[in-house]
């Protein structure tokens, strides 16, 4: 829908503040800013769980690739702070 209405940005609200590599593992890493190509690599490496973060990552990739606009993945509690650079920001 975001593509259909020519949205300037896609915001995906979830229960966590960011997308992560190695989520809930000792070596968990926060993804802050990431290109579509890097995010695709992480996806192909199996970093995101089906039915959890994976569909959000796929939507972010699709929107950003097709529109050239950024996507933010963050928690609902961060929704009022989107202009402050919160969450995982996906860009081309």
Automatic annotation (TrEMBL):
PANTHER family: CARBAMATE KINASE, CARBAMATE KINASE-RELATED. The keyword Nucleotide-binding does not apply. Belongs to the carbamate kinase family. GO terms for cellular component: cytosol. It is an enzyme of class 2 (transferase). It catalyses: hydrogencarbonate + NH4(+) + ATP = carbamoyl phosphate + ADP + H2O + H(+). GO terms for molecular function: carbamate kinase activity. The keyword Kinase applies. Pathway: Metabolic intermediate metabolism; carbamoyl phosphate degradation; CO(2) and NH(3) from carbamoyl phosphate: step 1/1. GO terms for biological process: L-arginine deiminase pathway. It comes from Lactobacillus kitasatonis DSM 16761 = JCM 1039. This is carbamate kinase. Keywords: Arginine metabolism, Kinase, Transferase. Its EC number is 2.7.2.2. Residues 2-74 form the Aspartate/glutamate/uridylate kinase domain.
């Amino acid at each position: 829908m975001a593509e259909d209405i020519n949205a300037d940005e896609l915001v995906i609200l979830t229960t966590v503040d960011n997308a992560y590599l190695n989520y809930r593992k000792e070596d968990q890493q926060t993804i802050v800013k990431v290109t579509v190509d890097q995010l695709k690599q992480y996806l192909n490496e199996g970093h995101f769980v089906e039915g959890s973060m994976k569909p959000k990552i796929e939507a972010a990739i699709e929107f950003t690739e097709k529109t050239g606009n950024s996507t933010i993945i963050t928690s609902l509690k961060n929704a009022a702070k989107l202009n402050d650079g919160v969450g995982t920001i996906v860009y081309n």
